[in-house]
UniProtKB/TrEMBL annotation:
The keyword Transmembrane helix does not apply. This is PRC-barrel domain-containing protein. It comes from Phenylobacterium ferrooxidans. Keywords: Signal. Residues 1-26 form the signal peptide. Residues 30-95 form the PRC-barrel domain. It comes from the Bacteria. SUPFAM superfamilies: PRC-barrel domain (SSF50346).
Length: 108
């Protein structure tokens, strides 16, 4: 027979995990669309998508480049972003960012 306190503890743990997943999802959604600048101050693009790890914390961001001929997004580690007001700065120059390979979202 399962004791009631174990059922309560399991229910609380599941509730906390669900709440944490929702918070992480909300954090990711709050980052999307935010401007990203290079270390030289140039605008490189905006955050198109946040990819979370198994624990729900942001791991990677896909940054959609800005420009006359934008290509696919670039993948950067979330930890590479530094907050600067309502935008982010990355430790790369615009030239370094532009030379990164685009992520093929259609690839499986």
């Amino acid at each position: 027979m399962i004791k009631p306190r174990y059922v309560l503890a399991a229910g609380l743990a599941a509730g906390l995990m669900f709440a944490f997943a929702n918070l992480a999802s909300a954090q990711g959604a709050a980052l999307e669309g935010r401007e990203v600048r290079a270390s030289d101050g140039a605008v490189v693009g905006t955050i198109a998508k946040v990819i979370a790890g198994a624990d729900g914390r942001p791991l990677q961001v896909l940054v959609q480049p800005k420009g006359a001929r934008p290509t696919g997004p670039r993948s950067l580690p979330y930890k590479a972003l530094s907050a600067d007001g309502d935008r982010f700065v990355i430790p790369l120059s615009k030239a370094e960012f532009d030379s990164m390979p685009a992520v093929d979202l259609a690839a499986k």
